C-alpha cells in the first residue's frame, strides 16, 4: 500500500481514503506483483516525472494500472533488446573463435608443411 501512497501524492486536492488506497494496492499487487521492487521504484519515479498518464484531480487506480501496463511493456522490450544484443555478441564471439580454430595447425600438419618447404 505504501507504493500506492507514493503515487497518490501526484493527485491534486487528494482526498484519498484508506479504503481506496487498500483497494488500489490490491489491484496493483494482483496484476503487477511480479515486478521487482527496483522496477516499481523506477515506475514511481517516471510516473511522478510525467512520463505516463496523470491524475485529473483525484486518485484513480485505472490511471496507475494503465500506466503500469505501458511501463511493463517498455521494460519487456528493453529486456528483449538486451537479450538479443547479448546473443548477437555471443554468436560473434563464437564465430571469431571458430575462425581462429581454422587457422590453427596440428603438429602433423605443421610437419607436412615443414617437410614440403625443406624439400624445395
Describe this structure in words.
The structure is a single chain. This protein has helices at residues 2-8, 18-32, 37-48, 61-103, 107-119. With 120 residues, it is mainly α. The protein has one domain (2-119). It starts with a helix and ends with a helix. It has five helices and no strands. Helix 1 crosses helix 2 and helix 2 (18-32) runs parallel beside helix 4 (61-103).
Topology:
Blueprint: H1 2-8, H2 18-32, H3 37-48, H4 61-103, H5 107-119
Helix pairs in contact: 1-2, 2-4
- Major pleated sheet: none
Shape by Cα distribution:
rod-shaped
Beta-strand residue percentage: under 5%
Question: How far apart are the first and last residues' alpha carbons, in Å?
Answer: 86 Å
Could you tell me the radius of gyration in angstroms? 29 Å
Residue-averaged pLDDT, rounded? 83
Order of helices and strands: HHHHH
Q: How many distinct beta strands? A: 0
